[in-house]
Amino acid sequence: MASPGRSLPFFILCGFLFFSSLALDMSIIDYNIRHGQNPEERTDANVRRIYEMWLVKHGKAYNALGEKEKRFQIFKDNLKFIDEHNSVNRSYKLGLNRFADLSNEEYRAMFLGTRMERKNRLGASMGTESRYLYKEGDDLPEKVDWREKGAVVPVKNQGQCGSCWAFSTVAAVEGINQIVTGDLISLSEQELVDCDRSYNQGCNGGLMDYAFEFIIQNGGIDTEQDYPYEAVDNVCDPYRVC
């Protein structure tokens, strides 16, 4: 749990912020200009060369018999998806990253741990919250990029742990804390994974509602520096100091 000396208290609560983790059909998000080729122009040999370079770049090695070929077929499908997407004029591009040998089902099972059962949602029986809805006459900007306003920390990696619920929660709290105080501080997902167990289940999934409630009841949350992320379920350590 967070101790008064090193926790970050929050005195302003602006309702609940709900984040849903959505995945594209293919787990490939980084863009590389070489990945914009017409899929019909790629030969099997060409794809295999790309695959071998990708294996080296990401330090991939498969021990099981036939696993490398199985992963190649998934990689090939993902690369085809990239090429088809990038062949159309869209506002964003796709590319190969370290997840390119995973199927959509495998990616979801490994990395998406949000537990969204409606019956377990806090306030599920309440009426729709209207305070944040657009009202006629509101003078709103066309867009807001909180990265440009300094309210978003650098990209984090949850690893092979279904803790996306903790990352969603922490990102929201980091952002609102920066907006209110002006200080951008990276906070601890691991504290939620280890200590928020009234409903949430660490690397086996959870819900942001309960994580927000945990932070409120706990009086704050530790910083990433004090309680660093390990991507595994550990015993809650209320006195942990790095």
TrEMBL record:
<keyword id="KW-0325">Glycoprotein</keyword>
<dbReference type="InterPro" id="IPR000668">
    <property type="entry name" value="Peptidase_C1A_C"/>
</dbReference>
<dbReference type="GO" id="GO:0008234">
    <property type="term" value="F:cysteine-type peptidase activity"/>
</dbReference>
<dbReference type="Pfam" id="PF00112">
    <property type="entry name" value="Peptidase_C1"/>
</dbReference>
<dbReference type="InterPro" id="IPR013201">
    <property type="entry name" value="Prot_inhib_I29"/>
</dbReference>
<feature type="signal peptide">
    <location>
        <begin position="1"/>
        <end position="23"/>
    </location>
</feature>
<dbReference type="GO" id="GO:0006508">
    <property type="term" value="P:proteolysis"/>
</dbReference>
<dbReference type="InterPro" id="IPR013128">
    <property type="entry name" value="Peptidase_C1A"/>
</dbReference>
<keyword id="KW-0732">Signal</keyword>
<protein>
    <recommendedName>
        <fullName>Cysteine proteinase</fullName>
    </recommendedName>
</protein>
<dbReference type="InterPro" id="IPR039417">
    <property type="entry name" value="Peptidase_C1A_papain-like"/>
</dbReference>
<dbReference type="InterPro" id="IPR000169">
    <property type="entry name" value="Pept_cys_AS"/>
</dbReference>
<feature type="domain" description="Peptidase C1A papain C-terminal">
    <location>
        <begin position="140"/>
        <end position="242"/>
    </location>
</feature>
<keyword id="KW-0378">Hydrolase</keyword>
<comment type="similarity">
    <text>Belongs to the peptidase C1 family.</text>
</comment>
<feature type="domain" description="Cathepsin propeptide inhibitor">
    <location>
        <begin position="51"/>
        <end position="107"/>
    </location>
</feature>
<keyword id="KW-0645">Protease</keyword>
<keyword id="KW-1015">Disulfide bond</keyword>
<keyword id="KW-0788">Thiol protease</keyword>
<dbReference type="InterPro" id="IPR038765">
    <property type="entry name" value="Papain-like_cys_pep_sf"/>
</dbReference>
<dbReference type="Pfam" id="PF08246">
    <property type="entry name" value="Inhibitor_I29"/>
</dbReference>
